[in-house]
Design goal:
With 450 residues, the protein is mainly α. 85% of the residues lie in helices and 0% in strands. It is globular, with a radius of gyration of 24 Å. The relative contact order is 0.15.
Length: 450
């Protein structure tokens, strides 16, 4: 006689096991998507506020120069302010080495939390430092110290953000997730522009120059709670956890990166050329609009807002496109069209120095930069293996920014003063766009579709 009861029980158990497996896979997939979303929010929010605090110094350069540099020439005061701005970029490679190796050894989220808290400290120094009128030469020295702390922090931040996004991206969406890094930078500029607009609406220009600009940096101190959020809610990336279990990770991350991947770092630095120069020229627009075009601070902030909105809108679309067609086509489109349009755009701006012209130029350059930079962070992430990804990306990014971008505002200010030609800024941008076509053509995409 066939034991139908036992057979039925076995079938029921098999069905239960199948359902359990299905539920388990569903839960795992849901957890994976949830982790990816939390990681994207953590990385982009941290990067957003890091860039906000960094850029706030640039767009408030004119009132900052009046506060901390007591010299008779406005041009010299502004160049000293931008030189102090550039000092922060000198500290970036050091931060990239220290924080990058730390993040590659102990984890991405710990490294990112450290960078955010350090950035908050540097921002507090600038927000509350007394002016030259109160403490003399000590004031600019303290500001330099604050910029060094910010630069050290930012040196490791981008590598951590790129690794966090790259390693948490769902299959086929690495281009989109990589684009969030540049989108968050645009959002940082957008928020800085809104804060500038708000301050210029509440205070007179004299009050802003008198100290109301400090409120922008006080707002930037919100970065500290974001650091705590990342530390508590974001899990470590699966790629890092898998790699950490391998014995090879015990070797010196820094020595291995510099000795075995120096050519890759060189390629990463070249990838950064147009990205960083175009970024800091865009951020220089506030000063350019006020000093060279004689627009108001309020109008210059509206231009920054337009640029930020453009980044917010374009970066995700470019990221999605790169997941379908690869990264090279959007990057070449951005550089080549910039080389063609930069001169007529800046010529229009100098001939018709209005708010409408300023917005047209900033939106156009922002859209073209989005085509390049949205893909560039993904290219950087693909260049380096998991074991040294944060260190490699951070070093490439920091050296590129230090060499090409950090002193861009000072160089442009000097070129305009030297030549008397307001279009010197266009020539500088065209050169960067043309040269950056070379690394784009040379780099090999490991993951053509995501």
């Amino acid at each position: 006689m066939i034991n139908t009861s036992s057979s039925s029980t076995d079938m029921d158990q098999a069905a239960i096991n199948a359902n359990t497996d299905t539920i388990g896979k569903t839960v795992t997939a849901t957890d994976s998507r949830s982790q990816a979303r939390r990681a994207a929010i953590g990385a982009t929010m941290g990067n957003l506020l890091e860039i906000y605090d960094f850029i706030a110094y640039g767009i408030f350069a004119v009132p900052i120069s009046k506060t901390f540099f007591a010299v008779t020439s406005d041009t010299i005061a502004l160049m000293l302010t931008f030189a102090t701005f550039g000092v922060g970029f000198i500290a970036r490679p050091i931060g990239a080495l220290v924080i990058g190796t730390y993040a590659d050894r102990v984890g991405r989220k710990k490294g990112m939390s450290l960078t955010i808290l350090l950035m908050a400290l540097g921002t507090a120094v600038i927000a509350f430092c007394p002016g030259y009128a109160s403490i003399g030469l000590t004031a600019p020295l303290i500001v330099v110290a604050g910029r060094l702390i910010q630069g050290f922090s930012a040196g490791g931040e981008v590598g951590g953000a790129v690794a966090m996004l790259h390693e948490n991206a769902p299959p086929g969406k690495r281009g989109l997730y990589a684009a969030f890094q540049q989108m968050s930078q645009g959002c940082g500029v957008l928020i800085a522009g809104f804060i500038g607009l708000l301050l210029s609406s509440i205070f007179t220009q004299e009050e802003i120059f008198g100290g109301a600009w400090r409120l922008a940096f006080v707002f930037g101190l919100l970065i500290a709670p974001v650091g705590i959020y990342i530390r508590r809610t974001v899990d470590e990336t699966p790629e890092f956890l898998a790699n950490a279990a391998q014995p090879s990770t015990q070797k010196s991350v820094l020595r291995y990166t510099l000795l075995r991947h120096y050519k890759t770092i060189g390629m990463g630095v070249l990838v950064m050329l147009f990205w960083t120069i175009a970024t800091y020229i865009s951020n220089y627009f506030s000063t350019y609009a006020v000093r060279e075009l004689h627009l108001s601070l309020r109008e210059s902030y509206l231009g920054q807002i337009a640029y930020g909105v453009t980044m917010l809108a374009c970066c995700p679309m470019v990221g999605l496109l790169s997941d379908r067609i690869g990264k090279k086509v959007p990057m070449l489109f951005g550089t080549l069209l910039t080389a063609v349009l930069a001169y007529p755009l800046f010529d229009l701006l100098t001939q018709v120095p209005t708010l409408a012209s300023l917005i047209v130029v900033q939106v156009t350059i922002g859209a073209l930069l989005a085509c390049y930079a949205s893909c560039a962070s993904g290219v950087l992430g693909e260049l380096f293996p998991t074991s040294i990804r944060v260190t490699g990306v951070a070093i490439s990014y920091s050296i590129g920014v230090m060499v090409f971008g950090g002193f861009t505002p000072a160089i442009v200010t000097w070129l305009i003063a030297l030549t008397g030609d307001k279009l010197a800024i266009a020539y500088y941008l065209i050169g960067a766009a043309v040269i950056s076509c070379i690394p784009v053509l040379l780099v090999r995409e490991r993951d053509q579709r995501g």
